Amino acid sequence: MPSPIESDTPPPGLLQPGRNCWRLEHADRFKLLIDAADYFRALRLALLQARRSVHILGWDLDSRTVLVPDGTDDGLPAQLGDLLHALVEREPGLHIRVLNWDYAMLYALEREWMMARKPGRARNKRLRFRTDARHPVGASHHQKIVVIDDRLAFVGGLDLTRCRWDTPAHAAENPLRRDPDDKPYAPFHDVQAMVDGDVARALGELARRRWLLAGYAERRPQPREASEWMELNQADPWPAEFEPDLRDLRVGISRTEPAYEDRPGVFEVRELYLDAIAGAREQLFFENQYFTSNVLAEAIGARLREADGPEVAVISPQTQSGWLEQATMGALRARIHHRLKSALETHGPEAAARYQMYCPHLPGLEDACCLNVHSKVFAMDDRLFSVGSANMSNRSMGFDTECNLSIEVQGDADKQREVAQAIALMRNRLLAEHLGVTPAAVQQAMDEQAGLHAAIDRLRRPQQRELRPMDPRLIPELDALTQDNAVFDPERPVSPDEIVDAYVPRSARKPVPRRMIGLGVLAVALVAFALAWRFTPLRDWINLSSLIALARSVDQMPFTPAIVIAAFVVAGMLMVPITILIAVAGVVFGPVNGGLYATAGVGLSALLGFGLGHWLGHDALRDMLGPRINNLSRRFAQRGIAAMAVIRLLPIAPFTVVNVVAGASHLGLRDYLLGTLIGMAPGIVLTVVFSHNLAEAIRHPSLQTVLVLAAVTAALMLTAFGLQKLLKPRNKVGGDAPRKSGPATAGSGPSGASPSAEPGGRRDDPLPRINADRVSADHAVEVRQA
After folding, report:
1. Does a structural domain hold residue 742?
2. Are residues 651 and 766 in the same domain?
3. DSSP class of residue 328?
4. In a domain? residue 254
């Protein structure tokens, strides 16, 4: 491939302080650490040399993380939290500051609680764990930075938390890849940079500033000069076993900081990406967890439509992590990808061929055999390389705090050649890891094929480690749920008042009624139960085997029916799955008594839930779900018995939730109880009979018990098949029957029609788009009318 260096004259620098980077500082050494096995080992070795200060900034941190799971011989604890405690005890002048994002409750069940208050750990005022909540609503602290003595720093996409450690081999089965609960997790890929010199000193300033902005005082004096450090400590914190990729160079530090309180926003990372996209001559290589940024997609599309535009390769995971990311960021990525491909196809096959998204295939893995790519790196030709925390998302461009380090060709001709070769090698190392070849093989293929995509295609090895071309699936249902990026991937901070003005009609803003307090108490109770289920032995107690054992002990008591019925009521209010309770009744008490106990218990639990919903009131439900609940509630009341029967036959929501919502609606008690009985009775009968005969077939296997079990199973299947046929929607000719005219109801449009109705049956997007400018006045009017 042609070299970007054509003369001894240095090309104009892309990195410009004040535009696309905060500072351009000198570094003695720079090293790209690929995957957490190298980063965590290098970090542990560096931490052992810390004498004065350690600053750790992160999106997530788990003190139980083991940095080197294959063991060390340094005599210090394995877990991160214990290690930090041991270091401050060993070094009397050492101060460690850990600043973790004050995460949203959405992540509560995935995070470590009470990190700084672990039993058995002595408190030390020189080790401080704090959380950062000084952000706009919905934003997060996303920088992943560690600075040691202002002499060595790490920046990238890796947090010091669970389920991150892995080696470049990414073996399907690695006994060392286990979380703090000793459960295995899937292969994980990410990248971190290690740097020293003035860059590390500048990152120390950044960390201290973030600590102060988070609301915590810095109790130590400012860092000393390098000459003073040489007098205090001769030890070099750079781990000797890690040879630098580059020496004696300048490194750009780019940030994202959202506008907050009286501070203006900082958007250096966004400008860095845009300048790199605009300046690329031959290729743009991205390895990123997300690709959802509108501004980056538009810039890439503009370059690809040029006759001599660069090749663009995006390496990304095939599926996002977890259902929530798949339903939000995954859907947004698929939409942008298909929009970009469609636009390029109109400019001919050559333009479309220059863009491709890939996923790293790993043989032997389940879940589509794709590596979980979490890194945030990109390369522009052989001229610029950037690594950091910023995703290719709207959030990272302007909403979350981010930090990237970048290097570019610099200096005289010899230095330019050295840096260009190092940039190419770092890119090739990443490609080689995913393709299962050597970096030299990647470079040879790129030189011979004269193209990035052609080289990847040549090196692909089907059914082995490879980069597979990927077209993220655009699922219409998820696309409909994520019609706008403003909620899931916002481009800028949005104030609470602006959200209210945009989304909530002024007529719906009312004081909170007293009964909303009861709703809040119920919500808190349900959250407490969920947390108890996650962090206590409760989930071990509430399972089929333990409930059967408990029920057998109850069967020997004098007031068995009352106890069992009361258990149904209590368990139902605690949202224990009602089907499990019915099955237990069938196993222990038989089909007759078990069926009677279950029917009485379910009926009483349903009655109490209905009473709770009735006490909360329809207004509380309407304030929580919006004015459209009026229409739903009236339709519910008009078809009360039938509606309740269908909901009970098809449990589309938890039993307790249905009870409370029904009680708060227009539904009458008689219709509610009849519908519940009609809908629940078949399920109760089949469940107790099936569970009883299953237990009998296991305890006393015989031809008779097996035949009875088979018959009950067939009845269950036929019932399910019949319900499917009965409830299958039928196409109507000519649409629905016209409605009677009447006054407009709450939640209706100006003419009284439902605001969700369209001729094609498709719901208008109820959320107005909030872009980088403002909510349009016309759209705001539409929202108020809706």
Report:
1. no
2. no
3. I
4. no
Domain region containing 470: 266-478
> Could you give the C-alpha distances from 441 to 5, 413, 432, 463, in angstroms and in order?
22, 26, 8, 19
Helices 578-616 and 515-535, interaxial angle, to 10°? 160
pLDDT tens-digit profile of 550-561? 555 655 555 667
Looking at the fold, whether 417 and 333 belong to one and the same domain comes out as yes
Regarding whether 430 and 312 lie in a shared domain, the answer is yes
Q: What is the CATH number of the domain that holds 321?
A: 3.30.870.10
Burial of 506 from C-beta contacts in 10 A (0-12 / 13-18 / 19+): exposed
d(C-alpha 458, C-alpha 431), whole Å: 13
Q: Which residue has the tokens 């049956």?
A: 761
Residues 542 and 656 in one domain: yes
CA nearest 735: which of 714, 719, 706, 759? 759
- The full 3-state SS of 582-597, as one line of letters, equals HHHHHHHHHHHHHHHH
Confidence tier at 3 by pLDDT (50, 70, 90): very low
Q: Are 338 and 474 in contact (CB under 8 A)?
A: yes
| 556 shares its domain with 666 | yes
Separation between Cα atoms, residue 609 and residue 349, nearest integer Å: 61
Given 206, 225, 244, the domain boundary residue is 225
| 14 in Cβ contact with 384 (< 8 Å) | yes
Structure tokens at 397: 């461009």
Euclidean distance between CA atoms 534 and 706, whole angstroms: 38
User: Would you list the DSSP string of 391-415?
Assistant: -BSHHHHHTSBEEEEEEE--SSHHH
Q: How far is the C-alpha of 194 from the C-alpha of 282, rounded, in Å?
A: 28
Q: Are 483 and 587 in contact (CB under 8 A)?
A: no
Output DSSP code: residue 702: -
238 is a domain residue: no
337-341 contacts: CB < 8 A, separation 24 or more?
A: 337/291, 337/471, 337/472, 338/471, 338/472, 338/474, 339/297, 340/297, 340/300, 340/301, 340/304, 341/471
Q: What is the pLDDT of residues 346-397, one digit of tens each?
A: 777 777 788 999 999 998 876 557 899 999 999 999 999 999 999 999 899 9
- The Cα 70–Cα 295 span in angstroms is 43
Residue 489 included in any domain: no
Q: Which one of 225, 256, 284 terminates a domain?
A: 225
Pair (693, 581) in one structural domain: yes
Q: From 291, 254, 239, 296, select the one nearest 408 (Cα to Cα).
A: 254
Neighbour tally for 660: CB within 10 Å: 23
In this prediction, residue 482 carries a pLDDT of: 46
Shared domain for 201 and 141, answered yes or no, is yes
Instruction: Return the structure tokens found at 573.
Output: 């209010």
Strand pairing of 95-101 and 246-257? unpaired
Same domain, 540 and 642: yes
Q: How many CB atoms lie within 10 A of CB 522?
A: 16
Length, in residues, of the chain:
786
CB count in 10 Å sphere of residue 459? 21
H helix intervals, 311-378: 322-325, 331-345, 349-353
Among 414-418, 522-526, 668-672, which range has the highest average pLDDT? 414-418
Number of structural domains found in the chain:
4
Identify whether the C-beta of residue 256 lies closer than 8 Å to the C-beta of residue 490.
no
Note the pLDDT tens digit of each residue in 129-163.
998 888 887 788 999 999 999 999 999 999 999 99
Q: What is the pLDDT of residue 435?
A: 96
Q: Looking at the whole model, is its pTM more than 0.70?
A: no
